[in-house]
Amino acid sequence: MAASRKRFLGTLLTVAGKSAAPEERDGATAAITAVSAFRGAWAVRVHDVGSSLDAVKVAARMAAVPKTQAVPKMQ
Fold first, then answer.
1. pLDDT digit string (tens) for 28-61?
2. Per DSSP, what are the bridge partners of residue 15?
3. Residue 2 maps to a domain
4. Domain membership flag for residue 46
5. Which domain holds residue 11?
6. Chain centroid to CA 39: how far?
7. Measured between alpha carbons, how far is residue 52 from residues 10, 25, 29, 40, 44 in Å?
């Protein structure tokens, strides 16, 4: 998977008719990376490795929480 900062992410993040610039797409890249990893992607290519790795770790931890257990509230 190589979705890092791609145009489709900019389009998804469009505000007031203006697409997000590539450097504004790292959050979306982290999100799509986590979804891709969760769905079994073998590898991903990203610009910001740290953010994407954090997103994958959080998604994996959240996926491991039993559905009967309450998810901690965000403050």
1. 999 999 999 989 999 989 999 999 999 999 999 8
2. 18
3. no
4. yes
5. 7-63
6. 12
7. 17, 12, 7, 15, 9
* 18-1-35 Cα angle (round to 5): 75
DSSP 18: B
The overall average pLDDT reported for the chain is 89
Burial 31-53 (b: 16+ CB within 10 A, else e): bbbbebbeeeeeebebebeebbb
CA distances from 9 to 20, 22, 46, 68, 75 (A): 8, 9, 13, 34, 28
Number of domains in the chain: 1
Q: Which residue has the tokens 């190589």?
A: 2
How far, in Å, are 9, 16, 43, 68 from residue 2 at the CA level?
12, 27, 9, 35
